[in-house]
Amino acid sequence: MKKFASLSVMILLIAWLSACSEQSDEEDTTARTTPVETALIAKGDFQVDREIIGRAEAGDTSPVIPETPGELVALSVEQGDRVQKGDPIAEVNPGSRGEDQVELQEIAVRQAQSQLENARTTRQQAEKGLKNAQDQVEAAKQAQEAQQSQSEQAQQAAKAQYEEAQELADEAKKLYEAGDIPEILYNQAQSRADQAQAQYQQAKGQGASTESPVQQAEAQVASAEEQLNQAENGVEQAELQLEQTRVQLEQAQSQAANNTLTAPTAGEVANVEAGTGDMVSNQQPIATVVSLNPMTITATLTGEQLNLFEKGQDLEVKVEAREENPTATVQYVSSVPNDTGLYPVEATVDNSDETIKPGMMATFLLPEKVVENTLIVPTEAIVQEDNQSYLFQVEEDAVKRVDIEVLSSQSDRSAIEADLPEGAEIVTTGQLTLNDGGKITVIEEDA
User: Per the CB 3.0–4.6 Å rule, which of 81, 305, 387, 443 could disulfide with 269?
Assistant: First the structure.
């Protein structure tokens, strides 16, 4: 009986231990299932951002300078005020000096008007002189034609007389040689022939005069034309001088009244240097307007970095005042180094909200291709252990360890080489507690 009781106790103990063992196995199985987050492997060119640090500067700094010295009778702004282009800044009263300038310019205008009238009179006289000279040319041509006709007639008559006298002289010579007339008669006949020849030569010389009245008249026309050109130039210069003096008079009249100074550009008023009642000059600004839109991002480059920038290029810029990186457009790339041996570069960025302030740090982000046609994974998915990098590939409800080689890495992405296909699912969160073949539960992003 005692043996039977002992056997019953042993059977109950074995059954209880078996039940406890099964419960422990179930709890262990539940403990090995790890919740994870996953991502898909991408493939493509891996790019990194090369950073070049610069600084934000005001796009435009415009001084507000009076046109004429005087007393500052009104100041409409304070330092830090925002203004639009054309807004009134201050008012300057030039005093009696402005009236004196107006009087002087009025005298200058009257003198210029008188000079213009004289120049126009000179031009009219030159025009008349040219007309008279042209008329004289026509008259000289007509006289030359008449004189030439008379000269030709005189030459023909002298020639006829010479030929007739020479013929008589020849006949007298024959008679003299025949002894029919005395020598004195022959000599008289030859003398008359010689005189007729001289008269003929003289008539020919008069017809071939080297300088005719027509040439003299044409020379006078050329001289008159030159005088007219000079007179026209004089009129043009006098008209220009009159226009300049009128502009100067308008300026003097404007300056004689209270001179209202306006904002040359939109922006923020800075460096107010004068107050109401102060005497101001036209050499020093009374204030400065700083334009905050667009802003200029400046940096200096080494010779190796110079080819990364070109005018008109759009680049991403990281600015501490912006959550999203704005785009800047390169406006200037120097080809000559400054005193430090570096090359200045400037780019403009839209600053409509005026969140970027002058002096803020700004960093150019230049994408640079590091690895071509490679696998790209989130950097957080990579596990490093004993100088070996690996990650876990998801296979249904378990994971597989895959050793990898990291080719290039940034804080958010890394380029790797591994025996994995594009689009493979890998663990990005929870991998630090996993082992090869471990069970997982994928946490959906919406969960």
Answer: 81
